[in-house]
Amino acid sequence: IAGITQAPTSQILAAGRRMTLRCTQDMRHNAMYWYRQDLGLGLRLIHYSNTAGTTGKGEVPDGYSVSRANTDDFPLTLASAVPSQTSVYFCASSDDRASGYTFGSGTRLTVV
Amino acid sequence: DAKTTQPPSMDCAEGRAANLPCNHSTISGNEYVYWYRQIHSQGPQYIIHGLKNNETNEMASLIITEDRKSSTLILPHATLRDTAVYYCIASFYSGNTGKLIFGQGTTLQVKP
Fold first, then answer.
1. Alpha carbons A66 and A68: distance in angstroms, whole number
2. Which of A16, A31, A47, B60 would be A66's cystine partner, CB 3.0–4.6 Å?
3. Which of B16, B99, B7 is nearest to A101 (CA)?
4. A31 — contact with chain B (CB < 8 Å)?
């Protein structure tokens, strides 16, 4: 693993199903983030975590939950998926040296 | 976080300098200016950031006006691989608690 790993790469999900998107980083960054990007639009912040054990809400948190049990992992859960959650989801992390975010390659989720 | 304004699109000839403007007239004294780019549907890539001094790295230069109300990202010798959406973001960075809020960005098309 180098950087941020997201899984799955893509998923087609039936509406109403529960889904967890996985994000793992090996850089020991304290802060982690989840963004969604809809077709032709910019990224919107869903949830973030400044350090293990803490989380916060971003711009569009409704319908999503996160946990941060340890430094490396920051899973995003859709408790009951709806079609409007069809999007590309990006996980990111940052350290405390103001060197910018590192982004994962994204998970393309389609809710049908 | 201060709102930023960027032109929706720009063209640049291959080999020439690409100058991407960004207005952030409401930026506060301790907000940094960050630049990221996103190629196709990949995860965003950090380019550069600055507070009030001009900055240069191996990818680009960042010129921030003295009043900090605007900035320009300069790609000195644009190549076709620099075709991407470029995002200018103004954000606090306090240790690892910075949250990046993305706007619509500028789509830069580098033409042969």
1. 7
2. A47
3. B99
4. yes
Q: Which two tokens stand for residue A39?
A: 């077709």
> Encoding tokens for residue A105?
């390659």
Q: How far apart are CA A76 and CA A20, in angstroms?
A: 6
Provide the pairing of β-strand A76-78 with A64-66. antiparallel
Per CB-CB distance under 8 Å, the chain A contacts of B62 are none
> Which tokens in the block code for residue B106?
């500028």
Beta strand segments in A1-112, E = 4-7, 10-13, 19-25, 31-37, 43-49, 56-57, 64-66, 76-78, 87-94, 102-103, 107-111
Distance from CA of B86 to the nearest CA of A (A): 10
Give residue-wise pLDDT tens across range A22-34: 999 999 998 999 9
Q: Between A42, A88, A98, which is nearest B105 by CB? A: A42
Closest listed residue to residue B103, CA positions, set B15, B20, B11, B12? B20
Contact between B98 and A45 using a beta-carbon 8 Å cutoff: no
All residues of chain B having their beta carbon less than 8 Å from the beta carbon of residue A50 are 96-97
Lowest mean pLDDT among A38-47, B91-100, B102-111: B91-100
Instruction: Determine, for residues A31 and B49 on separate chains, whether the beta-carbon distance falls below 8 Å.
Output: no
Count A/B contacts: CB-CB distance under 8 Å. 62
